[in-house]
Amino acid sequence: MEIGLNHYLVLSVILFAIGLIGVMRRKNLLMLFFATEILLNSVNIAFAAISHYYNDLAGQMFAFFVIAIAASEVAVGLGLLIVWHKKHNNINLDEMSTMRG
Amino acid sequence: MFEAIAFYLFAFLTITMFYIAVTTSQALHALTALAAGMIFISAFFFILGADFLGAIQIVVYSGAVMALYAFGMMFFDTTREVKEKQGNKYIIFGLSVLAAVLIVVIFSAPMVAQNIGGQNPILENAGNVQQVGMVLFTKYLVPFEVAAVMLLVAMIAGIVLAGKKMDLSLTLMSEEDIKVLKEENTKKAHS
Predict the structure, then answer these.
(1) Which of B39, B56, B90, B134 is at a distance of 20 to 30 A from B144, taking alpha carbons?
(2) What is the model's pLDDT at position B95?
């Protein structure tokens, strides 16, 4: 049985759906960050698979940049989260309504 | 044959780990499951011949990002039960699947249209790391430098945000002190 591009794309979609479900049903902001990591990683798999099956390195390049963006997002996000936790002593998403959003 | 076995094994493991990370109510379990899932994802990169990407995945995610989360969790009260949003489950599920299918359409539309072509063809008799280096430092040099500047900005932002008032901790203070601090803050906000 040959593993083709479609197998990888289906896997990527399943992981993306899991991440989206996590983003939508989590109240804790830390868990929300975890779900974002899952989203970014599922797209990385799709990039790497397309790069392999089309003999093109551009997919891998974009996967590198996605990893760099994910790393910087985590650094800034966790910094903001620590500031918020020091001020309000919780990281509950529903109580962040000071901007009336 | 071995590729198929490896693919299905790691697909099952990754999906299980990420499902645990998304559904568990314990922050520590979620963190551990996420770290395991990241390692399993790097296995896909090795299967696909993207060795350098797999190594970077292990180093960056399991090394740096997970350590950062672990340090971040020391600030938060992780023993507290994580409360879940009580929304309509069907809407959430439907939206997730819809968005995921949209991703597939976005990725597969150019392939169905057959106008996708390799602009950086993979060279013969050169390792993956060598190829990546040749493409990254010629065609993608400017984005690479911009990414470096972005990481620097993120590092400075992290230091400034997390390093402020490091001597003050709400979890170690008594209730009276916190009340006094909150009153001061509200006074500052109103004035």
Answers:
(1) B39
(2) 82
ipTM: 0.89
User: Is A48:B48 a contact under the CB 8 Å cutoff?
Assistant: yes
Q: B189: which 2 tokens?
A: 């906000």
pLDDT, tens digit, 9 for 90 and up, residues B20-37: 998 888 888 889 999 999
CB pair distance less than 8 Å for A14 and B73: no
Residues 6+ apart with CB under 8 A from A3: B3, B4, B7
Question: Can you name the residues that pair with A56 across neighbouring β-strands?
Answer: B121
Distance of CA A16 to the CA centre of its chain: 8
Domains in chain A, CATH or no CATH each: 12-91 (1.10.287.3510)
Residues 48-67 of A with CB under 8 A from B: 48-52, 54-58, 60-61, 63-65, 67
* Distance separating alpha carbons of residues A27 and A39, to the nearest angstrom: 17
Q: Please state, in angstroms and rounded to a whole number, the distance separating the CA atoms of residues B112 and A76.
A: 39
Average pLDDT for residues B166-174, to the nearest whole number? 65
Contacting residues for B29 by C-beta, under 8 A, at least 6 apart: B20, B21
Bridge partners of A28, per DSSP, are A92
Q: Under a CB-based contact definition with an 8 Å cutoff, are residues A41 and A15 in contact?
A: yes
- Residue, of A8 and B118, whose pLDDT is higher: A8
